[in-house]
Fold each of these.
Amino acid sequence: MEIQLIDIPKIQNAKGNIGVIELDVVPFDIKRVYYLYDVPSSASRGGHAHKNLQQLLVPLSGSFDVVLKDGTEEVTITLNKPDKGLLINNNIWRELENFSSGAVCMVIASRVYDEADYIREYADFLDYVRTNKK
Ligand code: T46
């Protein structure tokens, strides 16, 4: 599985850093931004895939793990740098876990919220990716 980490340009000086996400940093048209915060360390978020949605996850603060599954392979990526975002394409199962205290996950999305785009059962996801590979 190809892991796509995106470098987020930063402006650094003695007063701290500015991360700048201009439209050309993100490989899709941005339709929505949301963020996960105050996530208990014991919580697991995600646990689904999307039929069409692409997303860029940016760890604005703290750290968390992202488990990605494409139906064949599984990869775990720790996000802990605010200047490194993880691109997740459609048809990828994701689980987010091990949130540190104070972690904030900003998500930049290619579509508005649409529950019909979610595949929330893993067996349905496996069926979906196998059907769509043919
Ligand atoms: C994803 C991971 C990283 C909305 O009404 N609008 C929204 O934009 C979002 C994101 C969620 N919701 C509702 C849908 C559910 O009733 O909020 C509730 C919790 O959503 P969900 O269980 O999907 O949350 P997560 O954190 O498991 O997943 C979210 C995104 O839904 C998902 O696309 O990739 O963050």
Amino acid sequence: MSNTFHHVDVNHPLLPEKAREFQMFINGKWTKGHSSENFVRKSPAHDIVVSTYPAGTAEDVDDAVKAAREAFDSGKWSRISGGARATVMLKTAQLIRENLAELALLETLETGKPLTQSRGEIQGAADIWEYAAGLARSVNGDSFNNLGDNMLGLVTREPIGVVGVITPWNFPFFIGAERYPYILAAGCTLVAKAAEITSGTTLLLAGILKEAGLPDGVFNVVTGSGSVVGQRITEHSDIDMVSFTGSTAVGQMALQASAKNIKRLGLELGGKNPQVVFADADMDAALDGTLFGFLFNTGQCCVSGSRLLVERSIHAEFCRKLVERAKKVQSGDPLNESTQIGAIITEKHYQTVLGYIEQGKKEGAQLLTGGSAVKTDKGLFIEPTIFDDVTPVMTVFREEIFGPVLCVTPFDSYEEAIRIANDTCYGLAASVWTSNLDKAVQGFRDLKAGRLWVNTTIAGGPELPSGGFKQSGIGRESGSYGLDEYTEIKSVHIQLGKRAKWLAE
Ligand code: NDP
């Protein structure tokens, strides 16, 4: 085993003595809901119980939707000024910062990600709340003053209504922050369902929003499983829009369920994202970016750069140096301040990732480093794993592994690189590494993905939109583009003076 693995310290002073007992948040109140059953969450790194949640039911969703609908129709949030909404949202950002230590620790205990990373994500989330508060003041439409003397045309935006938000376990607080503030800035009300195993920080956010002055019923959280709570949200007739983030398979189910009342659907789904490295790239930068791109969040990241396409003339040198660097990455106990990558989210997912690694070996990919679970008493850890000579027919090339696994494929020409990069049903993100400006621009034009990086990866703030081409999704989150998704457009023709009569007298 590598000497950069930090064994789990089960006596760490930050570990809780007993599990935190959460309730759901409906209509401004904490509630156990209709079920007497609880769901128990263990830290995937420490194997101790850290949180318990009510196992929500379809009736709990109905209660939350009723509260959100009444809050929306009352106008107490949907019809107040953007400035008044911004005040609550800025206070929310401030409270997130004040509670950063508690939020980050809970995030780490439930997800197994490094505490240093959780702090960065909570900080980043507060920034998004501030940014979106500004947008609340600038939701605007358009006017047409060119329709002749007797006519004025207006295009106005209105909040779409009640939004159901289903989020995954990989970035519970941050992915929420890429959605909730835009939904609230638009004037909508919402019912949130975080992944059952990582609902803690979404519930802490509910308390923060109440303290910040958000009216009751505007933000509701129902805890519970996807098959019960999530399913009810996607098919509920009184929900106007669903924002779903997760696997493509469940996204397809959400698409079918939403047909019932033709609700609008935003989908952010899987990815099998290429990092295309040309021979003229700054090698040191490309090596570091490739490493970060496939290992960030232990590879459990929808925009993970999980496929490396590298020009054949530098392929051998690049792979050798990449392996040397991969061995230096510090993994293990997420509470250790030096740890860079933490645990795998659940035993089930750990087995899935290990299964893909075995599949890669069987299909003839060449294992350069890693390839096994880390042998340790506690926790679910997998070694950073790099496969070389991966061809497009192999399962590890095609399917989203969602773990610390990189698949390397060499290429001989620009055209071949683009063809291999686009040879996937996904189209979420891609990175191009080159010092040639023409190639960089041509590359981001030719790559079929919603989010592109040139000479960097997994970078950026809330200003730019994110979302996928092909089976990676529908719609965009973030920026003013994200906010627009949560609005309905209304066109208004205003007749000035007398209207020309249809029926002659
Ligand atoms: P899922 O798609 O199953 O889960 C995402 C969210 O959807 C969770 O809140 C889940 O609830 C909920 N959900 C599950 N079933 C339904 C349903 N029938 N109707 C409505 N909502 C539902 O992802 P997994 O957690 O199982 O992860 C599996 C794979 O998905 C990963 O390996 C990865 O490939 C991909 N994934 C992609 C993510 C991304 O950011 N694009 C994020 C997470 C996963 P609950 O978990 O409580 O059951």
